[in-house]
């Protein structure tokens, strides 16, 4: 098992330790707040592991709350997919799934409270006017002409907003804070806007929707969240988070802490870009095994333990960084090297005939499922006169470095006999189509009796027993380490990110489970794809046996 036992330490856990020691909190409450406008990706997994991991380690609780204030972009399919992914990652949320929209009634009342306190107003300025008055980072903003509308008038206007009396874009409810603040988010930010949109949870009840900054802090407070963890782009917005909570009548005061987003090389982790890949059919859906989504990784053959381990290894800091793909792969490889059962599959079949083997004989050879773990048992692998080997495991001539089958030389067939290549048959183009061999019948499970040394071992599948299988080999989805930094990230898609082989696999793989990754000896870790049917097996390569990327980066 690759998962390390030790608890992670990071600056957020240090803050929590301090809060507990000082008696500020007795029970830690966190939340994971996805917006249901796309599938979860590996960056979200970092946030999930952080929020749920803290709740677990401190005997607290973590809620799953959909941040659903943007009905036009959201969808119930995303709501369902996100729940599935969080569960698959191994976490259980506290109580029912929550939605920010559960609190729309309360949010409305808090907005009215702000208006009553003279801290919010309805603004009819045009977008252009508002932009002009907003100022810039260097220049202070200016007050809107609607800023001094009376409380009673604002109350009436806000009610009219709610009752659908204004058009989309005609007006906004804004907080009255400070147009000269050095934090742009404090220059009278919008709290509510008009949207005549059907909502996946509240239907057509509302035609005004609260903005993220207003909604998030209040939802946190209602749920009794103690530590509200988000990514660094919300650092400035913490002022607004605190401003809202300190100006409404609510008891608990959660605190927001920010950490850096996960960036992963050779992929993109922005939902907007991922949606583009899906909608423009650059990939085959959200769960395409090349996607950095949780669903894609799962389909590819990643285990939830390997993703949790990855999230543990990358840690949580405030530093922006770019994590190497090989780090994610290493977590899977380490786990599967220990846990995956072995099988044989030939990706590029070359026929091999053992001439001195009796034509009708079939031997069921007992093969261990794991070379180092007897507890994983054995399986029976049929051996016969005609087998397939990997085309590039045979050469007519080769130097000593080539430890596979060479004409006139010997090699061991994995878990079977030593064979010698005697001659080849070629087609008209000169391609080798069959290798004719002899075998040494006294070499099953032992070395040749006369002391001949046979170094190489190759894998094979019996021709009459093997089962055809489509084998999908994946590479990085993008050709450059940071596609998001390119002018057009779609231009850098790696056209060879999916290579399909028509291979032959040993018959035991017909009953392989989808969720159980297997090591195909000498070729990598694979899992059965959901496209598999009884008469057509499909396997995905999750990861190779070795880290070939590190080498590619240098070359
Ligand atoms: P995007 O910017 O791609 O649209 P998002 O941050 O808007 O993503 P949300 O659904 O709002 O996506 O994210 C839910 C939670 O996951 C948030 O707390 C967010 O900070 C966190 N999160 C999103 N992306 C990452 C990432 N790359 N690394 C770590 N945490 C992330
Ligand atoms: Mg967001």
Characteristics of this structure?
single chain, 555 residues, alpha/beta, Rossmann fold, Glutamyl-tRNA Synthetase, domain 3, Ribosomal Protein L25, Chain P, 4 domains, 7-stranded mixed beta sheet, elongated, binds adenosine-5'-triphosphate, binds magnesium ion, protein biosynthesis, EC 6.1.1.18
**CATH architectural arrangement of the largest domain:** 3-Layer(aba) Sandwich
Under CATH, the topology of the largest domain can be stated as: Rossmann fold
Output the structural class: alpha/beta
Radius of gyration: 31 Å
Distance N terminus to C terminus? 32 Å
Identify the CATH class of the largest domain: Alpha Beta
What's the helix count?
13
> Any idea what the CATH superfamily of the largest domain is called?
HUPs
Helix content: 25-40%
Small ligands present: adenosine-5'-triphosphate, magnesium ion
Q: Looking across the biggest beta sheet, what order are the strands in?
A: 10-25-26-27-23-24-11
Shape: elongated
Largest sheet: 7 strands, mixed
pLDDT averaged residue by residue: 96
The poorly predicted ranges are none
Strand residue percentage:
15-25%
Organism: Paraglaciecola psychrophila 170
Pfam families: tRNA-synt_1c (PF00749), tRNA-synt_1c_C (PF03950), tRNA-synt_1c_C2 (PF20974)
Protein name: Glutamine--tRNA ligase
Subcellular location: Cytoplasm
């Amino acid at each position: 098992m690759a998962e390390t036992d030790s608890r992670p330490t990071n600056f957020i856990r240090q803050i929590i330790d301090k809060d507990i020691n000082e008696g500020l909190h007795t029970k830690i409450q966190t939340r994971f707040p996805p917006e249901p406008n796309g599938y979860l990706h590996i960056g979200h997994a970092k946030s999930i592991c952080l929020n749920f991991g803290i709740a677990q380690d401190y005997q607290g609780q973590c809620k799953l709350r959909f941040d659903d204030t943007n009905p036009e972009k959201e969808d119930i399919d995303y709501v369902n997919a996100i729940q599935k992914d969080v569960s698959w990652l191994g976490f259980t949320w506290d109580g029912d799934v929550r939605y920010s929209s559960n609190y729309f009634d309360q949010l409305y009342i808090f907005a009215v409270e702000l208006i009553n306190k003279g801290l919010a107003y309805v603004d009819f300025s045009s977008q252009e006017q508002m932009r002009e008055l907003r100022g810039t980072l260097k220049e202070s903003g200016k007050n809107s002409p609607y800023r001094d509308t009376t409380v009673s008038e604002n109350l009436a206007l806000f009610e009219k907003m709610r009752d659908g009396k204004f058009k989309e874009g005609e007006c906004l409810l804004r907080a009255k804070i400070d147009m000269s603040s050095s934090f742009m988010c404090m220059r009278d930010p919008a709290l509510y806007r008009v949207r005549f949109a059907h909502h996946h949870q509240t239907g057509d009840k509302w035609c005004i929707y609260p903005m993220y900054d207003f909604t998030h802090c209040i939802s946190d407070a209602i749920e009794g969240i103690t530590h509200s963890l988000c990514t660094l782009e919300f650092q400035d917005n913490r002022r607004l988070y605190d401003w809202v909570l300190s100006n409404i009548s609510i008891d608990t005061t959660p605190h927001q802490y920010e950490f850096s987003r996960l960036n992963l090389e050779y992929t993109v982790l922005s939902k907007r870009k991922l949606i583009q890949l899906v909608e423009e059919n650059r990939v085959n859906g959200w769960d395409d095994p090349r996607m950095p989504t949780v669903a894609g990784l799962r389909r590819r053959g990643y285990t939830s333990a390997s993703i949790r381990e990855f999230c543990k290894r990358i840690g949580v800091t405030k530093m922006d960084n770019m994590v190497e793909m090989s780090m994610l792969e290493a977590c899977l490889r380490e786990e599967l090297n220990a846990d995956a059962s072995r099988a044989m599959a030939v990706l590029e079949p070359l026929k091999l005939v053992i001439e001195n083997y009796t034509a009708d004989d079939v031997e069921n050879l007992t093969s261990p499922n794991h070379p180092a773990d007897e507890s994983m048992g054995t399986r029976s692998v049929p051996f016969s006169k005609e087998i397939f080997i990997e085309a590039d495991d045979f050469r007519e001539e080769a130097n000593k470095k080539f430890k596979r089958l060479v004409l006139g030389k010997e090699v061991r067939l994995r878990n079977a006999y030593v064979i010698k290549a005697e001659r080849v048959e070629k087609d008209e183009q000169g391609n080798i189509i069959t290798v004719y061999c002899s075998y040494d019948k006294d070499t099953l499970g032992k070395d040749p009796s006369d002391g001949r040394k046979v170094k190489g071992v190759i894998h094979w599948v019996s021709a009459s027993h093997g089962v055809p299988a489509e084998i999908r080999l994946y590479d990085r989805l993008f050709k450059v380490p940071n596609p998001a930094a390119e002018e057009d990230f779609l231009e850098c898609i790696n056209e060879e990110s999916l290579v399909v082989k028509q291979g032959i696999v040993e018959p035991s793989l017909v009953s392989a489970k989808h969720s159980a990754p297997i090591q195909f000896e000498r070729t990598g870790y694979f899992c059965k794809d959901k496209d598999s049917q009884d008469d057509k097996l499909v396997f995905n390569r999750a990861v190779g046996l070795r880290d070939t990327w590190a080498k590619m980066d240098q070359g």
